[in-house]
Every structure is written in C-alpha cells, then in structure tokens.
Specification:
Protein name: Succinate-semialdehyde dehydrogenase
Number of helices: 16
Shape: globular
Structural class: alpha/beta
Bound molecules: adenosine-5'-diphosphate
Strand order of the largest sheet: 14-15-16-13-12-17-18
Number of strands: 20
EC number: 1.2.1.24
Radius of gyration: 23 Å
GO molecular function: succinate-semialdehyde dehydrogenase (NAD+) activity
Distance between the termini: 69 Å
GO cellular component, one term: mitochondrial matrix
GO biological process, one term: gamma-aminobutyric acid catabolic process
Oligomer: single chain
Length: about 475
Amino acid sequence: VSEKLRNSGLLRTQGLIGGKWIDSYDKSTIKVNNPATGEIVADVACMGTKETNDAIASSYEAFPSWSRLTAGERSKILRRWYDLLIAHKEELGQLITLEQGKPLKEAIGEVAYGASFIEYYAEEAKRVYGDIIPPNLSDRRLFVLKQPVGVVGAITPWNFPLAMITRKVGPALASGCTVVVKPSELTPLTALAAAELALQAGVPPGALNVVMGSAPEIGDALLTSPQVRKITFTGSTAVGKKLMAAAAPTVKKVSLELGGNAPSIIFDDADLDVAVKGTLAAKFRNSGQTCVCANRVLVQDGIYDKFAEAFSEAVQKLEVGDGFKEGTTQGPLINDAAVQKVESFVQDAVSKGAKIILGGKRHSLGMTFYEPTVIRDVMSNMIMSKEEIFGPVAPLIRFKTEEDAIRIANDTIAGLAAYIFTNSVQRSWRVSEALEYGLVGVAPFGGVKQSGLGREGSKYGMDEYLEYLTVSCATG
Ligand code: ADP
C-alpha cells in the first residue's frame, strides 16, 4: 500500500451505516488479500443480519428526505461525487489492483468508466419526465408521475469492484432511491473508498450504506425485508436465480446482470487483423474475468488456420504479472477456485480431443496466475463450450456456414454479449438480428434468456429505479 493511499483517508475497513463507519457488532472481520502475492491487505468488518437490518432501517429513514430533494439538488451532490472519484482515480485504481489484481492502467480505466455512471446519472436526474394521458371521463385529468421505488439492495461482484457499484448506485440515487450496497467480500476496499467520497460529496447519512461479510445473511436480510423495494444484482446465474426466487414473497422489483457465454464469430470475409485484435480484447480483458468476455471463438472454415496462427501469435505477446508492474497486461485470477475451474475445463476439452496451441497450464509465477491459452478443435460437447470459463482461455470452434454459426452461437442458455467480425454490412445486420443476445456491440447493457433481467446504463437504466404513479384529478 503506497504512502499516498495510506494517507488519503480512503483505506476504510468498517462498514457504513447511517453515515457512520462501524465495526461488525461482534467485532469479527474478514481478510482481504492481494491475489498477485497472497499478502493480506486489510481486515474488514464481517457483517451479517443485524447490521444489514440497521442499514435497511437507516436507508428507509433517509428515503423521504432524499427523494424529496429536487432532482437538481441530488444532481449537484452526484456531480461532486463524480469529481471526487476522478480526483482520486490513482488511489482508487491502486485499491482495485491491490484487491482484484487487474493491471493498474486497466484499474485506473475502470475508475474513469465507473465514475462516468455517476456523471451521466447526475445529468439524467433532471430529465425524469412524466406524462399526461387523455382521460376516459370528461371530468377527469390523468397524470403519470415517475417516482423512486424506495430502498434498493445492491449486490455486486469482484470483477469490477467500482464500476458494478456505480452503475447501480448512480441511477438509484439520481432517481431518489436510497441504497444498501453489499460489495463482494473479495473486493470491499474499493467500495468503501467510493462510499467515503460519497459522504464527502454530501450524500446524506443513510442514503448510501455499505455492508459486507456473510453473503447469505446479508442477502436474506435484504430479500426478506418488506422495506427493501428492489434488488439489483450482478454476479453468477446460479445466485441470481436464487435471489429472484427469494424476492417473490415480498414482490420486489428485480434487476439481474448474470453470466454470459459470448461467441466471437469470425467469418471468412473478416479482416484478419481486426478479428485478431478484437477477439484478443474481447477475450483477455481482466484476464478473461468479465461477463461479456468472449467465451467461444467461432471461426469459419476458410480462415480457421490463418486465424489460429495469427491469434496465437498475438496471445503470446501478452504480459502476465503483478498488476503493479509496468507493462503487465494480464493479472492473476481472483482466487485458487477460479484457477481450478479453468484447469478442469481445459482437462475436459483435451480429454475429448481438443488441442492446446498455447498455454494450458498454471503460470510459472505461481499464485493464481494462469498462462494465456489458445485451444483448437473445441466441440460443443466440451464443458468450455457450455459454461463460462472466466479465465484466459480461448477455445476455437470451427464452423462451415453462416447458419451453422448462428445455430452454435445460440445453442446456450446465456444471451448477454456477442461479437461479429465480417466485412459484409448485410451479413452483420442479418447475423446481429438472428443472434439471441442482449448486446451485439455496445450499450445499453443487459442480457436476454438466462443472462438477466433489466438494463443498466443509458436512459433505460434509470427506468429500473422508477415506479409510475397515476394521478387522476376530477375537474368538477
Ligand atoms: P461470482 O462468480 O462473480 O463470484 P457470485 O454470484 O458468487 O458470483 O457473487 C456475486 C455477489 O453475490 C457477491 O457479492 C457475493 O457475495 C454475492 N452472493 C453470493 N451468494 C449469495 C447469496 N446466497 N445471497 C446473496 N448474495 C450472494
């Protein structure tokens, strides 16, 4: 931990409840470690049911006053938060690298990206318009007002310790909701630092709470509380399904950003260089640990061998190492369980006939580093074709025709992101529309099928935190 970070006041280890930094009630803690070195970075409060209930109560109490501020007043506070996040992007980036492992440059990039949601929704707060509906009775006038849904529970993952929080908290606070955030227990430090800056920006006590610790306890408290009106979650499909079911008894609004199984489809007519660069970025960002990472690389017959060669050459140039080391492009995986999962997927593919072109094993750096890997002759019966790898392994799958590509690409329960490489404009339209995916390209962000529910980012992201109130006025 650098001197600057230590002196910044951003290294928080307590939870934030009702505007106060507090220990867990039984003083228990969880250790946060640096995945690149195994070093313990901090002991943070390990909270559970009681703390979460108090956080919910404080958010519930803060709701009337926060939601009654004018949009302009909330906007000013959010804008100040954005400015503070940007002013501290170095320290926040260091925290991200420290607890998550991604290269520092990428981490600082995440701060800019994460902060942009706060900036955007600070502006968008002022544009929540209502409607006037022609009445069904001549002596009535009908209005639709958009109102904040209430207290929001936000459960977020470790792969983007800042951005997955801001894209939820930004629109929630902008619309007048108050929020209880549960960051991943693996990466709480970034969340706490961001919350400290929110306090400095003037976000009032209770409008934003942060609790971390026992995921099932905190999750249950959020889900069973009738005061929590919405659950927004980013994480695994399995946990998302559980949360959706548990939200039913209290009929909460639910937004889910779940796992993907993104195909990157390279047609014969693609520009080889563009396809290599594009797939490299889509696959190896954050060492393959994003839900929109290319999980399957579908390559047409005619370009398959050329692509395999050029792609492997590009992958070979990736620099694996500690995220703080200059030049590193690939950090470690988040923990050993993640590496074991990757190992088992690779073993399964090889046992069924796939061939490793590059990598295929743990990196000599040890810890949770894994070699950037390219595997060819991957078939649909192999686990890596069906499940999210979430690691630096690119499986190459061969296809013959456009119809084959679409069939293979859609043959999955996921439907988040897809990538197409072709020089034909007609084909890119045709294939984009035939793919059962929420995003082919970019924004707004969200999946179809079992990849999720709701949208994040853009003007559509705001609707997730609003309810429609119909007002019927009599004129006589
Ligand atoms: P990932 O594979 O990204 O770790 P998870 O779905 O396990 O995905 O984790 C995403 C978030 O969900 C984390 O904050 C984690 O603590 C939380 N989580 C995991 N299990 C539960 C649960 N049973 N109830 C509530 N939150 C949970």
